[in-house]
Amino acid sequence: MNLTQTAFGLSLTLCLAAALAALALPRRARPAVAGALTAAAGASAVASGAAAVAGQGWSAWYPDLLPLLGVRLALDPLGGVFLAVTGAVAVCAAIYGIGYTRHGLAGRGVQAAMPLFVAAMLLVPAAAGVGTFLVAWELMAITSLLLVVAEHHRRAAAGEAGQWYAVMTHLGFAVILAGLAALAAHAGGDAFDEIRQAAISPVAASLIFLATGAGFASKAGIVPLHVWLPRAHPEAPSQVSALMSAAMVNMGVYGILRVGLDLLGGGPAWWWLLVLGAGAASAVYGILHAAVSADLKRLLGHSTTENMGLVLIGVGAAGFFAASGSRALAALALVAALLHAINHSAFKTLLFLAAGSVLHATGTRDLDALGGLRERMPYTTALFALGALAASALPPGNGFVSEWLLLQSLVNALPEGGVRHAVTMPLAVGAIALTAGVAIATFVKAFGVGFLAKPRGEGAATAHESPPTMLAGMLLAAAACVGLALAPTLLLPYLAETAGGVIGAPAAVTGEVTLRLGGIASTISPLLIACWLAAALVLVLALLRVFAARRARREARLWDCGAGPMTARMEYTATSFAEPLGRVFDNVLRPESDIDVIPAKESAYIVERVRYRARVADRIERRAYEPVLAAFAAAGRAATRLANGSVHRYLAYGFYTLTGTLILLAVIA
Amino acid sequence: MIAAILQVVLVVAGAPLLVGLMRQVRARLEGRAGAGVLQPWRDLRKLLRKEPIAPRGTGWVFRLAPLLLAASALVVTAVVPLVTTASPLDGVADLFAVTALLALGSVALALGALDTGTAFGGMGASREVTVLALVEPTILLAVFALSVRVGSTNLGAIVNSTLDDPLAVISPASVLAAVALAVVIIAETGRIPVDNPSTHLELTMIHEAMVLEYSGPDLALIEWASAIRLSVLLGLLGSLFAPWGIAGADAGPVALLVAVVALAVKVGVLGALLAAGEVFMAKLRLFRIPELLAGSFLMALLAVGASFFLA
């Protein structure tokens, strides 16, 4: 009985207890008890994951728990990283959920599905057999689907989002099932240990990688399989959005790492170039859509696609370097990818919880109708600002550190590799750089338009600060962001050890205050940058004290061109803020706009009203998904003619099918 | 350490003079007498003596923005090798961090502008971040091209390597990266043809639209920080592509003096060239700017290609 096992068992038990408590307790006590138990489960999972990363491995086989295969569990450092991250997100989301679900979401179903969802996500990285993995994966899909449609009676969009999510996640499950089943069949065993030792032919391995990769990429929200994500994440209750966007998408990355690098042992370079390409495309496409979307939670959903794209750039680069023999660089790229996944989880939890807090207070997610929350919701505003700083990858935020590591691994690949490196790496750096720039614009918009200036809507004008439990959940996530930003060096040695173990290379990152990379002369010190910024701020203040006039600040009117007081209608909205970017990237986004001019009755030249509508549709969805959906709908309509109610017809169908099958069998045999 | 303090003091004191010099060059070329090189310092002194004013409806973001802009500019000044390659902060931040710190300052100002809730503030912020988003890829790729030869993105290392191998400056990679960086610096500092620093009431303005509500000491801080950013970026261009005269790790007083003079000359010449160029150019339409920046991005991409294939 080591710490890993004890804590893991405890966290699963607590999840079950939370679900049972949600079913048994009366409505008033339900959110508090279920939330507290889920938070405890999350904390216990963090302990278990940390112990696994620190080297306390654990594995177990329970042959009687599932028919035929039994349940196989194991925790190695790689699984431990993802387990700990999931647990940490669950702690924040569960504490936040106590206040958030008190009104309207305290039903038995929602309250019980949430801890089960957490339990499923804890089981995925701990699964050590194909059967166990698939059961956990499907449990994760079903519980999250229940939570996505939790508010469908209030908003029709939630039901539609649920349909998209259900179809996409189950198509993904089907290909993962096919891939892993083929893997188990080729290896002759269900357990991951047996699969690792098996010799699998390159063609079969490639097919398995492509099938599972597609399924995992869909879970991670990677272009072109991302269409469910910007629908499902905004429509789910906010603490569920945080769990899905900060923890569940990581499982897609985990799957690619586990199958590609661990079970299949690396593979050829083209696999990983494919992963890198998909990651780069997602990063750019996701952030461009985030930049032009005016729905706060949808913006965050698109930003998840972006960040998972960045993580996959790191994963792809790691696999590619490993395949071309530069193991040290591969380990560095993998550390960058893991750290970015962790950073993303931290700031995305914070941002989604803060967005939920805004939704809770104002009843709207539309940035164009928000604004002016700075005075009414001071804590939420400050916490969102912190999250936005991290998400736009500026120092001293935590996103900056991982993007820096990622860039270093790509930049320094050039002298080592051949022509393939020389072509790929600049393009990858270009994609990351474009993403970084647009991300800054996106989060300036989200924070500046959503929280500052004057309120532009009824909801924003009457907003109020959130209850203490919600603030506590956000504060925990914010503390994680600050810790990761100032002291990533506490965590990095363990991550470097983990990545080195997966790749088979020595640890790539060292240093206590200053980050030093193995074999690369570049250094950086996030803590000292923050200290120097603070020192410079104090210096500037002191200089102002000495040299500026010491008079009290006087209030004055805003400059209004002499036209009378400015109204909130004159402010820049999210739509107008993003217009230049939308125009620059016109070829990718293809924004649509309609203008209806309604003339007055008396004359066609006197305009009575002008209505302007702008929309940025997802072009991938329009080109790739809508034709397929239309074809299915047409086939369905055509098929109704097959069933016209005539019993003779149905008997004939049966007769011909049976005869056909018998003939087929005769031919085959 | 002394050299680093000297560098910061020099830039802090000299930056307004650079702006004055550039205005004087423009004035002379346009046939005017000009206000003299010291005018920006006089303006700053005047602004600092004025009463601080807070526009109604603005909050802590508006107050904090000038401070953060100035602080980030100061940190960048201390990091970049201008007078000495042996900055105590060299290992703390590299070229990526410098660009990110400059972006942090721009973001602070854009948020301050949005906080006012005026149409001008929003417009300026929107345009500023659009230009910022398009500038970022070029900078990072140019950094990439420069760091390939050295194997490090740390600024001191890049400058030292150029000092050891002066002919590397005229390699295709360096030349392309220099041109790309020059375009980017023009865009970042808001000079013609991207933005016009001397207009206030034009629908095309970017930077000035953002700072319209600032006055008194706040405005002084912003003007001063903008001047520092301009000098540091021009000085960086000088140090990266013409690092001669810069002081080494254990330089004596004479070497430091030489370094100071060399820096002043380099930055002065670059500033005068920039100002002279501005006289003969018109500002581009806002939606033509992306084409200019795309051109510089392409050059940075070619620089990376050249640094590999022609190395």
Describe the structure.
The complex is a heterodimer of chains A (669) and B (311). The mean pLDDT of chain A is 91. Chain A contains 25 helices and eight strands. Among the domains of chain A are: 289-303 and 333-541 and 570-586, no CATH class; 622-668. In chain A, helix 1 (3-24) runs antiparallel to helix 2 (30-53) and helix 8 packs antiparallel against helix 10. Chain A has helices at 3-24, 30-53, 77-100, 108-126, 130-148, 156-187, 192-197, 202-220, 229-235, 238-263, 269-292, 296-323, 327-362, 373-376, 378-391, 398-411, 419-451, 458-461, 468-486, 488-503, 526-547, 574-584, 586-589, 619-639, 647-668, and strands at 58-62, 71-75, 509-510, 515-517, 520-524, 554-556, 592-599, 607-615. In chain A, strands 3-4-5 form a three-stranded antiparallel sheet. Chain A has a two-stranded antiparallel sheet with strand order 1-2. A two-stranded antiparallel sheet of chain A has the order 7-8. By secondary structure, chain A is mainly alpha-helical. Chain A is globular, with a radius of gyration of 27 Å. By secondary structure, chain B is an all-alpha fold. Chain B has one domain. In chain B, 70% of the residues lie in helices and 1% in strands. Chain B contains eleven helices and one strand, in the order ααβααααααααα. Chain B has helices at residues 2-29, 39-49, 60-79, 95-116, 119-150, 155-164, 172-188, 207-210, 216-241, 253-279, 289-309; one strand at 53-55. In chain B, helix 1 (2-29) runs parallel beside helix 10 (253-279) and helix 3 (60-79) runs antiparallel to helix 4. Chain B is globular, with a radius of gyration of 19 Å. Classes of the chains: A mainly alpha (669), B mainly alpha (311). The interface between A and B is large, with 80 and 86 residues. Strand 6 (554-556) of chain A pairs parallel with strand 1 of chain B.
